[in-house]
Each structure stands twice: as C-alpha cells, then as structure tokens.
Amino acid sequence: MIATLLSFLPAWAPTFGAGGMALLGVGLLGYSLLPLVRLPRLAAAGGIVCLAAASYLAGIGSAQSVCEAADLRRQLESALRDAEFARLERDIANRAYADATRRAEILDETLQANQNRIDDYEAELAKRPDRRCDLTPDDLRGVRGGP
C-alpha cells in the first residue's frame, strides 16, 4: 500500500526521504547511547525503525529510478524512430518533387515541340496558293502520326 502511494512520487522524493530517515535513525541511536537519557531503549528502537524505513524508502527510490530510466529510454527510442521516419518521408517527398519537376520539364518540351509543329504546319498551309482544298494526302498522314 505504501509502495503504491510512493510510486506516484518522482524517484528523488523517496530517496531524499530515505536520507532524512537514515540521519534521524543514526541520531536516535547515538542519543540512546548517552548516559543521562531517560528511555534509551525507546530511542534505540526508534532509531532502528527509522533505519529500516530508510532502507525501505531507498529500495523504492532505486526501483522507481530504474523504471523512470527505462521509460525515458523508450521515449528516446520512439523519438529517434519518429525522427528516422520523418527523414525517410522527407527523402521520399524530395524524390517525388524531383521526379515531378523532371516530368513537368519533359511535358513542357513536348508541348513546345508540338506547338512548333503546329506553327510550321499553319505557315505551310498559308503558303499554298490554291484555297479550294487545303488538305493533301501528306496532311492526312501527318494527322495520323506519320512523317
């Protein structure tokens, strides 16, 4: 029950309390050795109880620090995994951007080449003297994708 309540505290709190209890226990044991003390056995028993509580608190603090260290390691590993994932996503996005840029350049070049072909064809049609039938068999081959 006490360990459960102490588990809600940070690891340094039980350890700090253990140090205080140890000092109190040693003080009570030293006090019980003085010759003019009225109840030396009671002081010695209190010192022993304080030292026992100090060792219990030190154990709880040690266990909590191990758990906190493991939790911090897990958080660090998770953060490193997230950073690695973000780096991979950034690399993928950069490659996709480069690919899209390359494809856009190819489409621009194709569009410009097609526009040049259209302009040349319009100029050639404008040079023909007979306007009754503007299209020739060569024109139809060009529409179908021939030379």
SSE topology:
Elements: H1 2-6, H2 12-32, H3 40-127, H4 137-143
Helix pairs in contact: 2-3
What does this structure look like?
The protein has 147 residues and is mostly helical. Helix content is 82%, strand content 0%. It has helices spanning 2-6, 12-32, 40-127, 137-143. Helix 2 (12-32) runs antiparallel to helix 3. The longest helix is centred in the middle third of the chain and has 88 residues, at 40-127. The mean pLDDT is 87.
Helix content: over 70%
**What is the helix/strand order?**
HHHH
Portion of residues in beta strands equals under 5%
Shape: rod-shaped
* Oligomeric state: single chain
Can you summarize the main beta sheet? Answer: none
Structural class call reads: mainly alpha
Q: Which regions have little confidence, pLDDT < 50, spanning 5+ residues?
A: none
Over the alpha carbons, how many angstroms does the gyration radius reach?
44 Å
For the terminal residues, how far apart are their CA atoms?
A: 92 Å
User: Helix segment count?
Assistant: 4
Write down the overall mean pLDDT: 87
Q: Tell me the number of strands.
A: 0
